[in-house]
Amino acid sequence: MNRKDYLDKIIHDFEDWWSNDSHRLYVDFYKDTITYINLNSLSKNDFIDFFYDFVSKGGHIQSGGDRAKNKFRDLATKDFNNLKSFVLEPFTDKFSLEDWFHRLDAFPGFGVGIATIYLNRIDYSQYPIMNNKTLNALNKLGYKISSSKSWKNYELVKNIQENLIKDYSNLNNYYKADSLNHFLVAVYPGKALIYNYQQIETFENILEQTEIEHQKENNSNDYDKKDLLNRIINCENDKSEKIILNGKTFKRYNYLMVQIKKYRDYRCQFCSTKIPKASGDFYIEACHINAKSKRGKDTLDNILILCPNCHKLFDFNERINEKITKDKYSVILNGNKYTASLK
Q1: Domains in the chain, number
Q2: pTM for the full predicted model
Q3: Which of 26, 94, 187, 214 is the most buried (most CB within 10 A)?
Q4: So what's the pLDDT on residue 217?
């Protein structure tokens, strides 16, 4: 399915959810309190209490935490003047967002998530939010972004959401764009939409991998492991998204998965099952040890070749005593130990 068509469907269903959900009621929740005049006029105790409550409630956007709010109170009590100066900076003419962002580490309890929520509460037309929910949702939408809450990723989040707002004017601002993230990772209809899209994408990848297997380059049953390993290494080092075989364009990812499947002889690395198809080919699946959403790479040492049963066991079970070395992966799933070569 065309990604744009599916995104249209997601935005349509999100709008239906938004019109009936409490998120829309909190858009301007701090409109009269998070202002320079109000914050600057608060006494020390009132200032600390206000931000303690703000951190505790996650700015009415994310879940708060006892650990974060208590860290924040300790910080505010010990270093009140620096903290007050820091949180008032965004209201000043010489405010440097990048410099401010890089100094967040100096304020425990006021991390990237709550700090970017604070910025969003100052001006939701200018500042996006970046927390775990943001990065998770954007990955599910197909954007390539790591789980790091770095300045580079903050710029990337802003760019992605800015383009979404341009394409879908009903999103209006970064607050509503963040509510879309919540819809996709925390609300059943949104999670179902993403799951269905991922299933469609997985099916389309399998079809393309099957087609690649029957290309002239790949249609021999005899494969030299050294040659396959060289293909894998070359493909890993290729940063392009597409690859051309016999004049037809394919995803580089799918080409790589075909080579790794062949390299592993289409045999499950957990249970050694090899599944023949009526066509004479073999069926097997590929999965990431470290998910792409957690900066996992498309490389031989991060890909497991598994039968469908072991694949689902790997995806849905709690991984116990998981160990990864350069050459070997081992894990306990459902009480049984599995080991796979990564060489």
Answers
A1: 2
A2: 0.73
A3: 187
A4: 60
